[in-house]
Design brief:
240 residues; 10 strands; ATP-binding; amino-acid transport; 25% strand; alpha/beta; nucleotide-binding; globular; transport; 2 domains; Rossmann fold; 4-stranded antiparallel sheet
Amino acid sequence: MLELRRISAGYTGAAVLHDVDLIVPAGSTVALLGPNGAGKTTLLRVAGGTLRPMRGQILVDGSDVTGRQPHDLVRYGVCTVPEGRAVFPNLSVRENLTLFADGHSSALDLAVEAFPTLGRRMNQRAGSMSGGEQQMVALARAYLQNPRLVLLDEVSMGLAPVVVDEVFEFLATVRERGASLLLVEQYVGKALALADYVVLLARGRVQFVGEPQELDEEKIFSSYAGLESAGASSAQGVPR
């Protein structure tokens, strides 16, 4: 569903990612793990169209979308849920969800089905809700836009454990509906439980690609500690 080929990217001329290959097979969940500063958010920005790569190619379902803007990628079925509370704080919950649903008000029922709490908050200003409730509004777009590929950046950041559990239950439902997920997540155990494949990133390079059961604690520790040698594996280990 998503393929990144030899991506190098960064900011103000300084590369953060170096020749990164990554594949998200259709209908699968890929957990992108690594220490702070590894380049995970940069990679999601490249995949979501908010950062143009210095070099490399981006394909969505076989179509070359390199250089396309985020609103163009929506037409290819790409949905991005960025880090933080990605809502319009001065709009009501209803208005936020209607915008995400591109004006189709009937889709609001889907959001309430996913997060029943939102049904009691429709007329409340989104910015006045708790962090967890705001994240529910942001995540609901992964239902309302009926995407084929969802890019998620630390969506559990700062949430209470009970809300984190609800978020991961929601992500499992999104996957069951047929969407492919590329997930950056601080809760490693929960990410591995959801994932079909794992990619470890450190110092802007892929260190490991494989299935969760192939990844031992030593491999995770080494990657997060930045001890692995660069370029240990390539994305060729993930089936298309």
